[in-house]
Fold these 2 entries.
Entry 1:
Amino acid sequence: MNVDEEVQRLREEIMRLGQAQTDGSYKVTFGTLFNDDQCANIFEALVGTLRAAKKRKVVAYDGELLLQGVHDNVEITLNPTP
């Protein structure tokens, strides 16, 4: 799976696990994503996929590097599709 495919799968997983917002975005915490069994089976490196998605402006979150435990409550926003 290449990076673009992983980012697309990440979009799908955030929509599955997250809460829809009125502006068309979705919000989910890092801990929810990290601890989900389906996500664990899809993403070998969830943090790397999140960083790639952030660079492409697909998602937004505070900070650069998210770590399990420390950043479980960090909110990840899936930006609405234009």
Note: Strands lie at 19-20, 26-29, 59-60, 75-78.
Entry 2:
Amino acid sequence: MPGRHVSRVRALYRLILQLHRVLPPDLKALGDQYVKDEFRRHKAVGSDEAQRFLQEWEMYAAVLWQQANENRQNSTEKACFGISLPEEKLNDFRDEQIGQLQELMQEATKPNRQFSIPESTKPKF
């Protein structure tokens, strides 16, 4: 059972990073870093929290996949990603999670990002 769980987590992690390729470069960089941090942070949680964690990220992946397909079909319109969180879902969050969400929103919406996006993927020597 633990081996199947680990492969499910890895497959989901890879899927999300793959789906991020359709995002604008600044959102991709932000999203990739957030996913890496969150998956690392939840490595050693209990099984109930791990189950909920996976369900939430699976829903995220499904929404992103759907939005990527819709954006591909409506290629003349500006790409749109994300959804609004219902209040009842926000009420389930711990204070720490609300803080992370606020930081993520501030980073995603500010004009001057705190991170840089390399122009090329070639290694620099």
Note: The two ends are 44 Å apart (CA to CA).
